[in-house]
User: What shape does this take?
Amino acid sequence: MTSLLRLYDFTIIALAGLAGAAIFALAFAITADVVLRNIGITNFPWLLEVTEYVLFGATFLASPWVLKRGAHVRVDILVSNLSGTGRRILEFAADTLGLLVSGCLGFYALRVALESYERGDLLFKEIVIPEWPFFALVTFASLLLCVEFIRRMVAKPESAA
Amino acid sequence: MEWYEALSLLIGTLLVLMLIGLPVAFAFLAVNILGAFVFLGGGIGLDQLVRNTVASVSNFSLAPIPLFLLMGEILFQTGVAYSAINAIDRLITKVPGRLSIVSVLGGTVFSSLSGSTIANTAVLGSALLPDMLKRGYRPTIAMGPIMATGSIAMLIPPSALAVLLGSLAGISIAKLLLAGIIPGLLMAASFLVYITVRCALNPSLAPAYDVGALSLRKRLAPFFIYVLPLFLIFIVVVGSILGGFATPTESAALGSVASVIAAAAYGKLTLSALLRALMETAKISVMILFIIAASVTFAQILAFSGAARGLLDLILAFDADTMTLLIAMLVVLLILGAFMDQVSMIMITLPFFIPLAQGAGIELLWFGVLMLVIMEISFMTPPFGLLIFVMKGVAPPEISLGTVYMAALPFIGLSLGVLALLVVFPELTTFLPDMIRR
Assistant: This one.
């Protein structure tokens, strides 16, 4: 169990690192595009789509790590003014809801992914790629989010805050 | 279901979920799932929700958000920002409230290089606050300027929130970025005047101390080495937009690369600093983008349930004149801003405010800037102003939350003054964007 959790921790950190690295690479690719286009050598027509895919991928892949760091924006005015049992109940309720919401999103994303896969839906832009991996990625991220919410629920009260 | 029942159900559930501490992105998702069941036909609605969620962030116009954040993080994590603030510190000698003045000037400079208010406040707070408190500055005059100037980062480009607002409200992002410059500078100027006057009238607020005699050369040199070259980055970002040869995304990419080059040129680009910058960029980008992914469907459900139309009709039935309507919208934003984050504010109000503003003939660019100014203010309005908590986090434990609130108040007042000025003189916002070369 411990080694599984360690693998999970490593995975979500690596995914967040990947998101950061992709944004960094994007800065250089777009700069190269601007420079090469303005001096009339070449341009990268596919870059627009790749940028969109990076934004999407980064948002979902890094999200579990952001949750683990407790960095998703939240209104903690009520929680921080409670102590002891009241606070634990509220935290537990919020984490349960988070788990349900992530589970629901993951389930429906899987449904859409399967449907898209069966129909063989393609994204026709500069690059032609299948559509289902996008939805599958949402399912994958949702699963990781579920794990994180469960971890928060079973964590000792001190560390749950 | 009547429109007001739908509206109460959607907004009410959202607010309750936010209040119990569910992260706002998940609160939006929960309400959307509920709304999809009730108003969009269950499973089909949820399939649509998934598709919207994917489409919402696969959006090129949002790309400047992570890139602007990257710019600021690189300059922050490599320590280039600290050198710049130290250089400004050297430059300023005998003025009342010296370190507070340094924080406003340093913060304004860093605002022109960073799209993140959090990074801005963290830089100023960690660089200047300990020194201020050690030298006997009263907490009010020490923390107020840091929070106030920290939040200017979202008015002066690069600004992540201006990109978000422009993208979602259908306002030209390039114009909105430029339109924030003059209001941001006006705010900085009002802060400077306030600090100088307050500290001159009551020197005990910020005890004067001997800065140590340095030759003019020693005082000026760091400014030329560590501050002036950084303006090149600002010129790259704003100049490329103003000159009309780069989109906001491209200018943000150019700015990020320029920041990397600057950090390397100062010999401060270490691998560990770069990694920290990348992780922080990922974190803050995802904080913003995940809320967008989760909340885009919310506007559609508001529309589909009839809630948006119903409320709009109700407001229109009052037949208020344009100015009353405008002020009413701004007041609603101010109230919301005291309780929730900026992205949620945008997502909840846009479905109502954009049609209202358009219907009343309010210039959207101008309205967008006014919204940005209020979001800037809401970073420091009690009880939930984000920067109040950032400040509380870096301040010594004996400083109470109440003290931080009090420190913010005069600067909230000054910002409201600037807001009023912009309402009366719209040209202050439209003057720069009108200069874009076509």
About this structure: The mean pLDDT of chain B is 89. The radius of gyration of chain B is 22 Å. Chain B touches chain A through 60 residues (CB under 8 Å).
